[in-house]
Design brief:
The chain has 3 domains: 3-244, Glutamine Phosphoribosylpyrophosphate, subunit 1, domain 1 (4-Layer Sandwich); 248-440, 3-Layer(aba) Sandwich (Rossmann fold), CATH 3.40.50; 445-598, Glucose-6-phosphate isomerase like protein, domain 1 (Rossmann fold, 3-Layer(aba) Sandwich). Helices cover 37% and strands 22% of the residues. It is built from 20 helices and 24 strands. Strands 3-2-4-1-9-8-10-14 form an 8-stranded antiparallel beta sheet, with helices on one face. Helix 8 runs parallel beside helix 15 (404-424), helix 8 packs antiparallel against helix 16 (432-463) and helix 15 (404-424) packs antiparallel against helix 20. It is globular. The N and C termini lie close together (10 Å). Bound molecules: 6-O-phosphono-beta-D-glucopyranose (BG6).
């Protein structure tokens, strides 16, 4: 996926466009470009690489001064990262300038049809069909031309368009892809995500399917595809600019790891009563009768959010006693069991824009399932498509590797499972009081964990510095933790990290254990420590270098490993939140000690709005 920005107003557009793009480069950083208009003509500059490379290009090759413009930072889907494939893109002439996020699924068909009409294509991108289509359907009025061309595009897309014929305006459209309008004093802003708007405004309007926004000096007109004027909402957004500043942290990833106490506190805020979980808005959607009619629950997500779903699954099934499954979004949409109105499907997505997850949600809706979204982004597409949205309150997460969003997602999943248990009077009801008292201590437990593990982790990162392979293992919830720890090490340290159910190591993977290879043993589930210790003995017998992460000051474990990291002890269901922290810190230090850009790991992006 990519990032789109736009500005129109009284000020010079260039610095605003560049600063906004800087705040969006977590959406993709293969190439960047801008087009600026001085209301008479439009000029474009683009480059391979990051926004900083675009700034350097503009120092060497200045662009015209203008008070409106559009910009783009790209995560390549169709067409390698190159200058020619960078956005903005034009057609046969330099009449239309288009920046695009998403996928035009029927671009090959359109490209063929347009080529037959004499259009000559210069790039390998799907996007390039759009300016050629605008040329083909040009009526001399930009808004009309967009209205005519838009219905021919299939897929998910957010677009910002400028035209040399009407160089005093920007047109913005969105179809199942995020694009947010921001309102200033006599100036308007466009961005794919809210963080890029926060330095200028907290009044926003997420552009919806079928809306066409016409940004002109001093005002924004919203129309539908028939040209009827629509109302422009002005939503006030909770986040503020301070939330998105790096402050005195070196990386967003470390900042966000240390924001976890507050993220969890805010996610719990107002949702824990004396001896019950309070989700009043859910009461309307899920009556006791409806809850009792649920026969199966699914968690569906991608990446780190999928690991939160795995934790949710294990806890949910122990509390409600119903069959619970967890699936990758990209798999669920083609491979789900029987679905109907008695299935509850819970989608977890930090951004609320992941295309795989949105597609899986559409599939669940087709079967009339009960659909709940757990997301961190107000006004996101998923929050508009789900029957009910349970928001995590982690604040903006700008590092590509998810950290505070993950522990907030686990927290929200536990709240949801507890609420369902109480309302449905399921078998886990007796567990609620103890869980509530553990939740009330969770923020301070997370703070203690951060203090207890940071130094030890830094040392361990040094130990793994020259390693290419690392194994993680655990049982039950610790196995899920091992999966998330491995993903973090892959994402941030580019380490070949693999996670195994501890009891499985001896059935094959043990062949890979050579002297000195690092193994991280998760042993935070007290009732499983004994069994995990026997697996530790097995790898130690092959001279692995073993680090244990545990809560019990169990001399047995201490005796068996090369290094132990202790974290506070709490309810076993909440242990995955605490134990995630040393794994996040390990990935962070292993990445920085290797000199990686941990906020922007190679080949990745924060939320993939393409399937
Ligand atoms: C990946 C991100 O692209 O998408 C992960 O790098 C994230 O960090 C995954 O967990 C899912 O994203 P989301 O927004 O749907 O939770």
């Amino acid at each position: 996926m990519s990032g789109i920005v736009g500005y129109i107003g009284k000020r010079n557009a260039l610095p605003i466009l560049l600063d906004s793009l800087d705040k969006l480069d977590y959406r993709g950083y293969d190439s960047a470009g801008i087009a600026v208009s001085n209301q008479h003509q439009i000029e474009m500059k683009k480059t391979i690489g990051r926004v900083k490379d675009l700034r350097n290009l503009l120092l060497r090759e200045p662009i015209i001064q203008g008070n409106l413009g559009i910009g783009h930072t790209r995560w390549a889907t169709h067409g390698v990262p190159s200058v020619i494939n960078s956005h903005p893109l034009t057609g046969c002439t330099d009449q239309f300038f288009v920046v695009h996020n998403g996928i035009i699924e029927n671009f090959l068909y359109l490209r063929k049809q347009l080529s037959l009409k004499g259009h000559v294509f210069a790039t390998e991108t799907d996007t390039e069909v759009i300016p050629h289509l605008l040329e083909e359907y040009n009526t001399g009025n930009l808004e009309e031309t967009v209205r005519k061309a838009l219905p021919l595009l299939k897929g998910s897309f957010a677009l910002a368009i400028m035209s040399n014929d009407e160089p005093d305006r920007i047109i913005a459209v969105s179809q199942d892809n995020p694009l947010v309008l921001g309102f200033g004093k006599d100036e308007s802003f466009l961005a794919s995500d809210i963080p890029a708007l926060l330095p200028y405004t907290r009044e926003i309007h997420p552009i919806k399917n079928g809306e066409i926004a016409i940004l002109t000096p001093g005002k924004v007109i919203m129309k539908d595809l028939h040209g009827e004027v629509q109302e422009v909402e002005r939503n006030f957004v909770e986040w503020n600019n301070q939330d998105v500043l790096l402050s005195n942290h070196e990386h967003y990833m470390l900042k966000e790891i240390f924001e976890q106490p507050k993220a969890i506190e805010d996610t719990l805020q107002g949702r824990i009563g004396e001896n019950e979980i309070l989700l009043p808005e859910l009461d309307d959607f899920l009556s006791k009768e409806k809850i009792k009619s649920i026969k199966k629950i699914d968690f569906v997500a991608n990446g780190t959010s999928y690991h939160a779903g795995m934790i949710g699954k294990k806890i949910m099934e122990q509390l409600v006693g119903l069959p619970v499954e967890v699936s990758f979004s990209s798999e669920f949409r083609y491979d789900h069991g029987p679905l109907d109105e008695n299935n509850l499907v819970i989608f977890i997505s930090q951004s609320g824009e992941t295309a795989d997850t949105l597609s899986a949600l559409r599939e669940a809706k087709k079967f009339r399932c009960l659909v709940i979204a757990i997301t961190n982004t107000t006004g996101s597409t998923i929050s508009r498509k789900a029957d009910y949205t349970l928001y995590t309150k982690a604040g903006p997460e700008l590092a590509v590797p998810a950290t505070k969003a993950y522990t907030a997602q686990i927290t929200a999943s536990i709240l949801l499972a507890m609420w369902l248990t109480q309302k449905g009077e399921f078998m886990g009801t007796p567990m609620i009081p103890e869980l509530i008292s553990s939740l009330n201590r969770l923020k301070s437990d997370v703070e203690s964990t951060l203090i207890m593990t940071q130094d030890a982790i830094d040392q361990f990162a040094q130990v793994t510095f020259d390693q290419e392979h690392i194994f993680l293992m655990g049982r039950g919830l610790d196995y899920v933790l091992a999966l998330e720890g491995a993903l973090k090490l892959q994402e941030v340290a580019y380490l070949h990290a693999d996670a195994y159910a501890a009891g499985e190591m001896k059935h094959g993977t043990m062949a890979l254990i050579t002297p000195g290879v690092p193994v991280i043993a998760l042993a935070t589930q007290e009732h499983l420590v004994e069994k995990t210790i026997s697996n530790i003995k097995e790898v130690k017998a092959r001279d692995a270098f073993v680090v244990g992460i545990t809560t019990v000051r169990d001399e047995l474990l201490y005796e068996e490993v090369d290094h132990v990291m202790y974290i506070p002890s709490t309810h076993s269901f909440l242990m995955p939140i605490l134990a995630a922290i040393p794994l996040q810190l390990l990935a962070y230090y292993s990445g920085t000690v290797r000199g990686h850009d941990v906020d922007r790991p190679r080949n990745l992006a924060k939320s993939l709005t393409v399937e």
